[in-house]
Structures are given as C-alpha cells and as structure tokens.
Amino acid sequence: MFNIERWQEIFQAIAKNKLRTFLTGVSVASGIFILVILLGAGRGIQNGIQNQFAKDATNKIEIYPGITQKEFKGLGIGRETQFKNRDYEIVTQKFENFIDNRSKLYSVWSGNIVYGKETGTYRIEGVNPNYQFIENASVIAGRFINLSDIEHFEKVAVIGKKVSTDLFKDTKSGIGKNINVSGTIYKVVGVFTDPGGEREESRVFIPVTTAQRAYSAGEDIRSMAFTMPKRDNFDQALAESENFSKQLDKILKERHDIAPDDESALNIQNSLEQAQKIYQLTDIIQAFFWFVGILTIIAGVVGVGNIMLIVVKERTKEIGIRKALGATPYSIIAMILHEAVFITLISGFIGLIFGLLLWAGIGPFIESDFFSHPEVDFNIALTTVILLTVAGAFAGFIPAYKAAKIRPIVALRDE
Amino acid sequence: MIEIKDLHKSYQTGSSSLHVLKGINFNVAEGELVAIMGSSGSGKSTLLNILGILDEADSGSYILDGVPIKNLNETVASRYRNKFLGFVFQSFNLINYKTALDNVALPLYYQGVNAKDRAEIAMSYLEKVGLASHSHHLPNELSGGQKQRVAIARALASHPKVLLADEPTGALDTTTSYEVMELIQGINDEGKTILIVTHEPDIAAMCKRNVILKDGLIIEDKQIVQQRAKLYV
Hints:
Largest interface: A-B, 26 and 27 residues
Strand content of chain B: 25-35%
Number of helices of chain A: 14
Helix content of chain A: 55-70%
Oligomer: heterodimer
Number of domains of chain B: 1
Number of helices of chain B: 7
CATH topology of chain B: Rossmann fold
Distance between the termini of chain B: 31 Å
Distance between the termini of chain A: 32 Å
Order of helices and strands of chain A: HHEEHEEHEHEHEEHEHEEHEHHHHH
Order of helices and strands of chain B: EEEHEEHEHHHEHEHEE
CATH architecture of chain B: 3-Layer(aba) Sandwich
Shape of chain A: elongated
Structural class of chain B: alpha/beta
CATH superfamily of chain B: P-loop containing nucleotide triphosphate hydrolases
Structural class of chain A: alpha+beta
C-alpha cells in the first residue's frame, strides 16, 4: 500500500494545494493539541487529588474489637473481644512482607490533663513510633515517640497542636514541661499537626507500653493499625488490602474463638474504600476529557473528510483521465485514502508535539493543591497516533469511495 | 482486431429513453486508420466510448484482439484499457500539475513499470513526437499542438493495440491539425491500428477508411485513397 510512487503522487497533489492542505491540517492539529492538553490536565488533576489524598495514608487498615453475636464452640453471645500483645505479635510476624507501618494501640477516650492552672479533657493514645506515619502526623516541635520510650516505659507525651495551644498558648513552649495525665506526670517531648484538623490535633500520644502500665491493662491492647505499601495501580492496592483484611479477620477469629461468619465481633476498617471513590472521581474526569478530546478530533476529521470530498470533486476529471489510462478503482481509493491519512498523521503529529512541548514547558511551573505533574505518557501518545491513523482512514474513506465510483466517460465529458 | 456485431445502446434520460446505437456491425483489421464521421448526435462518441471500454453496450458483441468485452468489472476494464487501448482526446486531458514526461509516464505507472524504466520509455515517446526538449514543461507551458503531441505520446506509451482518438484536431488550427495528423499517419505507417472520430472532412480524407454514422446506424463504410498530411503542412 505504501509505495514510493504513490508518495510522489501525493506530494505533487499536496504541493499543488498548499493553502488548502495547510488549513485542513490546522483543524486536525488543533484537535490533537486540545486532546493532549485535556489529557495532560486530567493527569494533573489526578496526580493532584491523589497527592492530596495520600497525605492521609491511603491504605490504612484498623482493627477494633467488637461484641460477638453468634455462639461458637459452646461460647455464648455478647462476649467482648479483647486483643492481647500476642495477637499483635503474631499478625506482624505473619504479614511482615505485606505491611508497611504498624502499631498496636492502647487508647483512653477521655483523659484529664492538667498543666498549672490549665486543664482539659483529651483523647490519650498509647502508640508505637510507627503510628506517626499511619496518622500522617507531622512533628512541628520536639520529637515523636521513639523505640527507647517504648522499651523503657518512659513517661513522655507528644501533644497535638490544639492541646499545646490550650495548655501552653503556643506550639513550642510546652517542650520539656511536665503535664499531669490522669494522675501520672508526663514530660512533653513533641508537638504534632495532623491533616485531619483540630479534632485529630486534640490528642496526646504516649508510648503504648507506658499506657498499658499506667492504666493497668497488662497484656491488653485496644486496637491495631497498619498501612500497606503504596501501589500505582489502585486495583492492585485494593486487592492486596482486601486480601490482608480477610486473612487478618480469619486469624483473629480463630485465636479468639469467634464464629467465622460473625460480622460484629471484629471491626476492620479499610480506608481504601474511601480512596476508591476518589480514584473513581479522577477516572470520571479523565473519561470526560477523553470524550471532549475525541469529539474535537472528530471535528477535525470531519474537516479532513470534507476537504477530501472537495479534492475528489476538483480532481474528478483527473481521476477520469487516470481511469481511462488504466487506473483500477483500488488504486484510486488508495490514492485518496493515502492522502487523507498522510495529512491527518502529519498534522496530528504536529499537534501532538506542540501539546507535549506545552506541558513540558509549563507543566513544572504549575503547582497547586489539586493539580500537579501534568503529563501525557507514552501510551497515551501512542493511542493518539493510532486514533489518528484510523481517523484519517475514516475521513478519507467516503471521498475515496466516491472517487472510485467516478465513471471516466462522465468525468471526461465535463469541461 | 475489432469485431462488433449488432451493437445497441440507449440512454435513459428521465422517463424517456434515447436509442443512440441501433445495431452497429463493424470490423477493423490490424493496421487500419479509420475515420468515424457523423453529425453531432449520430452516436459516434458513444461508439468510441464503447470501443474504449469506457461504456458498455446494452446488447451485441464486441471482441477486441480476440478478447470478448462483456460484463467486465471496473478493475478488469481498467486493466484492459491500460493494456489494449490508447486514448487521445479533443481537450488533450493532460494532468495539469504533471510535467510532459510524467504525463506520458502515467499509463506505465499503472502498468507497474518502475520509475527509471518509465522515465526512459516516456522520453523515447516524447522524442518520437518531437518534444524531447519540452519533457519538463507543464501542460500550460505548451501550445495546443504540443499538448496533443504529448497526449499522443502518452497514448502510445503503454504500447496499446488500438489508438482511439476523439476529435484529436477539434481544438487546433488547421496547420497544427495537419501536423498532428502527419504524426498520426506516421504512427499508422508503423502498423498501429487507429480510430479517429471526427466531423472534419479534410481530417477524414487523411485516413484510409471512412465510416459514416447517422442516427445510430452506419450509412456508409468505404476505403479511400489516403491524403498525406505532409503535403499540406
């Protein structure tokens, strides 16, 4: 189909109508340009939203105890599940390769905190050092709980920004001060902020081991929290976390003599369900941009089709001559199609390159919360090129068919 | 070379049908130079179109060089046109954005001859019609007579069995007409079968045989003594 001879024919025909070919090309080029801009913007929005969302670790899994509602092994309903240190150890050992951050927790919903004349009631959470990353908390002064605190049952506290401003009027001066938490004296070693806002910042973190001892909990823990490694592919991430949740459920139920189908004895919360909505939103945005972009290309392609119809009309006589000289209908179709595909491809590539250059040029300078790293990846560029070829062939087909149907006798008659 | 038996052709124009050819019987042997004459509407162009496989008869038979021309699809028809026939038109019908050489080479392109051979063959035919020096001129840089010479070179390039000329001198002045006829006679002298549609008696007189059509029938078919165009130039 693509022989040199025909290329020469096409270049001759195009050279004859430079302006017309140029104008047609512009419509296709702008169509592709707009598609690339839209897709880049779509990607930018997707990246932006995902970054936003990633600030609160996207793949967080938390397990809280519940109350049994089914009898199992002769045990009645209404039993409260109580996790132990051993549960946490077994789970973390078994899933070492699946999980990223992990923490056992011993929390007290409301603890009375006193500093000098200031008092307040805050949530006290006994946590592991890792919990900072599960919560996506950032330390703005001092430090977070560390391993040494855990090992030595240190009486240290990391307080939320809200707690700090309540007790110390600012976010720094509390460091090194002693506060009274439910009757025990703790030293403030750090202040944190949390993307979750004031509610999340009205908390006080203490080492989990200290908490267990302070509240006479022995080996008891209240809950466990994990994050899983981030994946580029949402489906993969979702599958992994669902699989993890399921296995977690199974192991803990076995250990605590809970009926496998008891839905309320354990509460496993999987943050990816929420993430799914966000991913779906960006998918919809992407789909919308594709839709608009493709419509724009169709407009360009209709332009090419239109021009090719005019070309066929104008060259009716020439096509008649060619047929009289022995051109087969196939060779006429090939000639027109080839020209249409050629115009579409060349101008499409120009639009593609301009679009890519634009994003490469201005992309790095755009930085907003909901827009980052706009880019058009290789696959999309490739898809666009395939789309263009198909579009060009489509644009050329009707005119080419019309051209092939031209009867030389009629064509040669009209002067 | 050409055998035609009882050829009929009518055209539908709206509700009425126009019977153009009403039973043509006509044979042409190899090497003949035939003028087909007749007033406008006599059916001579229709006959030429059928001979040129540009149109198809309603009934009757047409055998070209032993090959029956009947119910051909477009692809086969164009292959036969390319192989058997060379066309010369009144309005030259050169492709205006191609040079003289490229125009002459076009039938060879459709024969699948490679570019180098095409240029060589086309050049030799341009030489034959005396226009080798104009090979790279576009048609609009040539005079009417030169255009028709290029068209004749193009018609010959594919080495056809029969040359069909539709009023080849219709758009030319007398002197140029005779020059073109001299060229056509020369080609015929080399043995090529040529059919010319014309309504000019002086052009017909330069052929070897005159066939006169009237109202879709051949009313006269005679061998004549050929006038050599050279004498008039």
